[in-house]
Amino acid sequence: MSPIPTGGGGISPPVIIGSAPPPLHHLHYFGAASSGGGRLRDRSPRLSVGTIGSEMRRHRVDSFSGSTIPPTSPNMLHKGSPFNQGAGRGRGVMSDSHMQKTYHEAMRQRRTSLPANSLALGKLSQITGSSLSEAKGLIADMLMSRELPGNVATCLRAVATLLEQRPNHMNGLNDFGLPCVVENPYSGEQLHVGASKPRVSNITFSTVTSATGLPTIAAEPNKARSSRQVLSPTFHPSSLAWPRGAMDNASAYGAEDCSYWKPEQHDSTSTNQTSTSTSTSTITSAPPNHNHSHNHHTSEHLRKESVSRKESGSHVDTVVTTIDGQRYDTKELDGDQDLADVEDWGFPIFNFAKKYPKTCLSRLTYTVFRQADLFRIFKVSPIKFFNYFHALEKGYWEIPYHNRIHAADVLHGCFYMSVHPVKPQIGPPPSPDSLLPPPTTAAIPIMSSMSTLELMALYTAAAMHDYDHPGRTNAFLVAAEDKKAILYNDRSVLENHHAAESWRLLCHSENSFIENLDAAETKRFRYLVLEYILATDLKQHFEIIMTFNEKTNDMDLTNESDRLLLAKLMIKMADINSPTKPYNLHRQWTDRICEEFYEQGDEEMRRGMVITPYMDRNDAQVAKLQDSFIAHVVSPLAVAMNEAGLLPILPGLIEPEMMINLKHNHQKWLNEIEIINASTAANCNGALSNGVIEEESTASDSPDPRKDSPSLDSELD
Ligand SMILES: Nc1nc2c(ncn2[C@@H]2O[C@@H]3COP(=O)(O)O[C@H]3[C@H]2O)c(=O)[nH]1
């Protein structure tokens, strides 16, 4: 897909021909992604209207031919040039000779083809009714003259005829049948679009987020640093070596760029604190090595002394100390043997959490960010990175399931699904009679189809996605009229809470590891993080799966919204991944979620509320709960992703280990149900022969899982 040229197209600010352009808005020309062999590259340098504006100031456009007119002196405008269509300003009657000179000048410059720059054509759609009649009047006056050369008269009559055709922008459409007015995503103001078809980047852009309702910026920010290298099929994360040249100089995220969510004003000390924080070292990805041992040269690379003021933390040599005194040695992290297995699906996360009960999430996030080279690409300050992710992990409660281990597990799941090569079976099927060879089926990691910004947003959202989870379901919070339910109007209460509060945490300047993203990247990052977190609400589960199943045949990963849908599937799959894990891990997660459900059931009992099915610890039905969860929630998603070829198949296997585990674990629960039913039946028979009917035998009838399962009831209907 060829890159769309910059400069032309985009959204042109409203300009009345002949008048000085309106105050300029920080509008960005939306870059276009172009793909080269599946590699996503963002290019087309962003052009602020400031540049365009000076162009406009320098050149006006002939309202008739669309050609640009060299700068005119104000007095020429003042003399009532036919191009000065300003309402009532400086209009007068031109002399014949002057008119002819002007007309010939205009005709000389007339374009032979439509200008590429919609700015030039933009003016055409600004011709107002009064201008038309004025122009027709002028032409009628000229045609009255007897000295007019024949050819000029003929031309003038032709122009008059043209002017008789009223542009259809009178009914709100311009010459291309496109709306004349669009929303400026930055200022929200109405903008008049030029007559030319506004360049729609080949990245279809979403206009609003379900969370903020604000228009989002359209396309991928176009910094070269967002480009991605195609990872070789034999890719192994630890062999990651990102192109050095890929990064351009990040534009500082200046205060003047701050947008509506600018970090909260903290007390003066903290504000002063961070304004002085400096950290000159950056963390880079491990140089290529294939024996999984993390290369210590990376730490050598970090040996630069970089000391920052104590207040926001420090980074001395390879040791980062956060604002609250938590110490991280990146050299030790790079060599952590546990983290060497981070790309294994069976990564022993509970062992890791036992070793680092307070920092398992920040440590895993560091490893993932480093493997994806995000520190280098986005100039992430190690101090602010660890400040944020440690504050984030401290915000997870010490509860059985929705704790920082779960957040780390979801991050690990997103990492696993993004870094291992897959063979996506998406997009239009090759036509059977096509003479072309079938599209390459080389396996490539999903991450090589995503931009680095999308990847950083996915990993960050995974770490954020259950922040400050109270261990209760949305249904419980709504029934209990919890203040969060009131705040979020009973809609995706937990998910909105996780997103809002984890983002609020990020707004503290000492935590703002995204400070070097520019305004466009920051807005897009926020949009993506919100979309990813809100997608974890199971209420949208089947809608998202259905959307994906309907799109599978025309998924286009060079299309921003298709990549968004794919990333939503990934974080969702990671969020309910337990049944796809090796049984020992799945069993631990099962025990944890059940204990958390029982704690909710205990509270429901205390409050005199109806105990949610499957949440009564005195009526445990774990096998049935898991059977229904696997059959009705996990399998529909896992099967959809597997059929689309989106789940990694590691060397030596013929299908994804996630699917192997899922079938194995489901069968185990079914076997357990069989055993329970058999023993219940035996009890019944015994009771019957002894004339006693066991009360609990009726309880073993499996209730409709759709109706009663706690993980289904409150979230899915
Ligand atoms: N029954 C059951 N529900 C689960 C399991 N794992 C996750 N869930 C549910 O899936 C939900 C996904 O979103 P949440 O994290 O909010 O809450 C999660 C749980 O309610 C599991 O192993 N069994």
Give the key terms:
binds cyclic guanosine monophosphate, mainly alpha, three-stranded antiparallel β-sheet, 717 residues, disordered N terminus, 43% helix, two-stranded antiparallel ribbon, 27 helices, 11 strands
Taking the sheet with the most strands, its summary is: 3 strands, antiparallel
Structural shape: globular
The largest sheet has its strands arranged as 7-8-9
Q: Count of helices?
A: 27
Question: By helix and strand content, what is the structural category?
Answer: mainly alpha
Fraction in helix? 40-55%
Bound molecules: cyclic guanosine monophosphate
Q: What percent of residues are in strands?
A: under 5%
- Specify Rg, calculated over alpha carbons: 32 Å
Binding site for Zn(2+) 2: 466
Biased composition (Polar residues): 227-237
Domain PDEase: 321-676
Family: Belongs to the cyclic nucleotide phosphodiesterase family.
Give the arrangement of secondary structure elements.
Layout: E1 33-36, E2 39-42, H1 49-58, E3 60-61, E4 68-69, H2 74-78, H3 96-109, H4 118-122, H5 129-144, H6 150-164, E5 181-183, E6 190-192, H7 268-275, H8 297-301, E7 314-316, E8 319-321, E9 327-329, H9 330-334, H10 349-355, H11 360-371, H12 374-377, H13 382-394, H14 404-419, E10 421-422, E11 444-445, H15 452-464, H16 474-479, H17 483-487, H18 493-506, H19 519-534, H20 541-551, H21 560-575, H22 583-606, H23 622-643, H24 657-689, H25 696-699, H26 705-708, H27 710-716
Antiparallel strand pairs: 1-2, 3-4, 5-6, 7-8, 8-9, 10-11
The structure holds cyclic guanosine monophosphate.
